[in-house]
Amino acid sequence: MDTDDTIAAISTPMGNGGIGIVRLSGSRAIEIADTVFRSSKKKRLSQSPSHRILFGHIIDDQSEETIDEVLVSVMKAPNTYTRDDVVEINCHGGAIPLRRILDLLLKKGARLADPGEFTQRAFLNGRIDLAQAEAVMDVIHSLTVQSQKVAMEQLKGGLSGKIDTIRNSLIELTAFVEAHIDFPEEDITPPSLMEMNAMAQNIHQPLKELIESARYGLILREGLKTAIIGRPNVGKSSLLNALLQHDRAIVTDVPGTTRDVIEEYLNIQGLPLKIMDTAGIRAVKNRAEEEGVKRSLRLLDNADLVLLVLDGGKALHKADKELIDRTDSANTIVVINKADLPQKLKPETVSLASVKISAKKETGLDTLENRIAEMALQGRSQLSTDIVTNARHVRALEKAYSSMESFLEGVERKESPEFLSVELRDALDAIGDILGITTPEDILNHIFSNFCIGK
Amino acid sequence: MKKNSSFDIIVIGAGHAGCEAALAAARMGFSTAIFTMNLDTIGQMSCNPAIGGLAKSHIVREIDALGGEMAKVTDKAGIQFKVLNKSKGPAVWATRVQADRALYRKYMREALEAQAGLEIRAENIEELLIDAQRIQGVRTTEHVYSARAVVIATGTFLNGLIHIGLENYPAGRVDEPPSINLPKSLARIGFKIGRLKTGTPPRIARDSIDFSVMEKQEGDMPPPPLSMFTHEITNPQYPCYITYTNGLTHKIIEENLTHSPLYSGVITGIGPRYCPSIEDKIVKFKDKARHQIFLEPEGIESDEYYANGISTSLPRDVQIRMVNSIQGLEHAVINKPGYAIEYDFVYPTQLKPTLETKMIEGLYLAGQINGTSGYEEAAAQGLAAGVNAALKLKKAPPLILARHEAYTAVLIDDLITKGTSEPYRMFTSRAEYRLLLRQDNADLRLMEKGYHLGLINRTQYNSFSRRRTDIQKELARLRSTRVKPAAVNSVLKRLKCSPVREAVLLEQLLKRPELNYGHVAELSPPESRLSDDVIRQVEIQTKYEGYIRRQAEQAEKFQKIEEKIIPQHFDYTTINGLSREIVEKLNEVRPLNLGQAGRIPGVTPAAISLLMVAVAKQKRM
């Protein structure tokens, strides 16, 4: 429990609210926020007077991607809720921008706040008077109970088993490395680089999978962003309608959004697909060729899944070819529509995997859905329950993962075991945080039960 | 001469804990008496004749830096010195010393006898005298002595019970009677007492051993001393020998397990897992074809070897057959059989971080009575108890070290916070900040404190201060001096390293694995010649700077939580939201600060959050 570092959290209820706030508090709050915020007037938050609101964007400086349009309030100590410097980032609601902004801040050096920690700091810094102290503790207590409950639920099933397995492998590896530090004179063979490497891979790989599952889990909850693209009149709209009808998909009004950006969701074998730019798909037909292609290309960048629709009744057009070239085979399915008409398009001229359907006659839709599910699950056999969803767990796994990377690098450099152990212990601490367990005894237990130690 | 019957501080027991406690108390200016049942066993090494090894030599160095005696006596009694783990980094180098048992006793006794203000008494303690939850003195078989503080350091003597085969008899060590009435006195006060077990291997007659078929292990030359105050080791040096058990040995043991008190249910005390008996090794590690035996010389004049690795409580005749089945020991004669010993210990969570008992003011416990094992662990506690008893009488703040400062602190904090269920031994893996707690920097970590306690004298301190300044100056010079590529590259070329293009800091050069301080000094010599100690320290601190800094940063964070003090009589029951188990644990340990509270098994981070607010609230009231 460090009371000096800078903490961050989403401070509005999760869900698809119209607006969301990510809050930062601590001595580095302004500095950290400055690393991700670009003011429209090119002003730095550190130069802004206190209690001002600035307009601008949150940018991921690695990918140069704009995450959201935001209003940022800068409040300098001591006249703030916590009496530390506080920055609040107001963004468009919805879990995704909130989570991405929070993730970015954590990457830049903030620590994810514990439940009730802002209130706790407010109290510790003398902001809240004594009479309110009980209330503060109630808040911390109830938030803790609540978040523990949520975390426990999220850890149920296969997930906690997986994390436990990782932890056990880590303890085994640490014990393996440690035994030769504390017992150099015992009759035990030191681990070879190969052995250490192999054992580490058994930790590294599952960690990676869990972290990926977290990213994937987010996609799953928010819907796989799906672009239906193609030249005008190839049947994009009829494909959408056919799929909607076929699955009796729920068409939702997302609260807080306006009518013209209504998003439509398809439910394909349990996978939510969020159809991008439904307005564009349903726009008046017979538009200019060029405009259709432009629209398609615009969608490509942000899509998780692309359905590229071609007209089977016509030979491959130059514009079709251009679209095929611009798509990524890993997330694109070519849908050759109008199978009910005499076929002029030769499937072999399409370099990507394709599915033949007729939107009009509703044929080939099952095959298409299977293909979509296959691609979306990325080789996962089914929607498993072991998906990490808790942000704190994800952070911990990422920490453990990066420690394992350092460990493997250290093994490569032939570092002495006491240095390698530093990385393993960091990884163990991170995993221990998820399960709420501390470690040194476990390592010793493992050493004593696996190596015959003792003169 | 009339016998004194009133002391400031009384120490019960003259083993490794007792000696350090008594010396520290007397050196800090208090009239002190040390009580032993037998003047001939002062400083007795009751287990193997060796001091140091991993984490243990680290502790001995700490004792040394705090003005204790163990390192100095070991150097005088040492007959083999060896640095272990040389192939690894300096944080886990450790010196192990084979010591002459008789010489160790002799030099420790001389140190006690030479100490002004310290009286040695050979009397049995029968009872602790207590009034109003405060220690008043002790009653021996002959007299009553008053004292303002008492340190109990009785080792395995409390209700000691020796087992050889299925026979057992009360004893503190072999041929020494146990203490029967003192444990009764402790129990009457209300201390929670548990039972532990440890064991020793047989001692073998030297001229009955065939060393020619064994592996010989020599020490380092010249022998590296343990104490920073020792200049040279003058004793003749002796080798150890290594041999192994075999299938026949294992068969003999297996066939006789029913005669082992360990496997027939006679022994109930819990033994250490890191020092199992040979019976345990064979039962628990069936797949292992052989177990190592380390034959350690008992001393220069001694005709005995200590067969480390086959600690046993099998009957004597089985021990003989077992030993004779081992290569090189076919004709070995057992002088003294191995034995297991069970003894009482006081659950250490009943102690404060000063090793004073929570229940009785002025009563301190140190060593095996607290559930530890090992001479070094005992000595460190003895020193801490002696110092803190003296500080208490001075009404000065106590000496409580932090976990990132010393293994001694890790030891005491573990004991009083987590307790122990088996004999507790120190391992480097118990320390979170292992890379900071090196045996090479014990002086830098602790000698300043030793000086302020009055345990390090002015001359010693001045020499330390100069060393410390030299190190800092040289590190600063390395960080600010650049050398031109031409000069550097001639050295790098000679070492077959990749050349540099631009001027480079000396520090950067020294960080290269291929280069040592000698190369750097060749390129740019320091103003005046530096001592080997200084050079070694500069090298270590530069080469491992990255890791050291990382741990130092973690330690700094750690320290901030340690500084959040919990008021002494804090009422945990008033905190809404703490579970009853957690309140009970907090009440049992009564942690000094939030950091310690967080280390109590079962106390959750959420509980610490609540505690933090509750403590802040009380402070503002």
Please identify the structural class of chain B as seen in this structure: alpha+beta
Shape of chain B: globular
Helix and strand content put the structural class of chain A at: alpha/beta
Name of the top-level CATH class of the largest domain in chain A: Alpha Beta
Oligomeric state: heterodimer
Considering the protein shown, what is the CATH homologous superfamily of the largest domain in chain A?
A: P-loop containing nucleotide triphosphate hydrolases
What is the string of helix and strand elements of chain A?
Answer: EEHEEEEHEHHHHEHEEHHEHEEHHHH
Number of strands of chain B: 22
CATH level-1 class of the domain at 203-339 in chain B:
Mainly Beta
Tell me the Rg of chain B in angstroms.
26 Å
The CATH architecture assignment of the domain at 203-339 in chain B turns out to be Beta Barrel
Tally of contiguous helical segments of chain B: 20
Please give the largest β-sheet of chain A.
7 strands, mixed
Q: Rough shape of chain A? A: globular
Number of helices of chain A: 14
Major β-sheet annotation of chain B: 7 strands, mixed
Number of strands of chain A: 13
Percent helix of chain A: 40-55%
CATH topology (level 3) name of the domain at 203-339 in chain B: Elongation Factor Tu (Ef-tu), domain 3
Segments of chain A where pLDDT lies below 50 for 5+ residues? 248-262
Instruction: Please state the average pLDDT score of chain A.
Output: 80
Description of the structure:
The complex is a heterodimer of chains A (455) and B (621). Chain A is of the alpha/beta class. Chain A has helices at 29-34, 95-107, 117-124, 133-155, 158-182, 193-222, 236-247, 278-282, 289-300, 318-326, 365-377, 391-412, 417-435, 440-450, and strands spanning 7-10, 19-25, 37-39, 52-60, 65-75, 86-92, 111-112, 224-229, 264-268, 271-275, 305-311, 332-337, 354-356. Chain A has a 7-stranded mixed sheet with strand order 3-4-5-6-2-1-7. Among the domains of chain B are: 203-339, Elongation Factor Tu (Ef-tu), domain 3 (Beta Barrel); 474-546, tRNA uridine 5-carboxymethylaminomethyl modification enzyme MnmG/GidA (Arc Repressor Mutant, subunit A), CATH 1.10.10; 564-620, Orthogonal Bundle (DNA polymerase, domain 1). Helices cover 37% and strands 18% of the residues of chain B. Chain B has 20 helices and 22 strands. In chain B, strands 1, 2, 6, 7, 8, 9 and 20 form a 7-stranded mixed sheet that branches. Chain B is globular and about 80 Å long. The N and C termini of chain B lie far apart (58 Å).
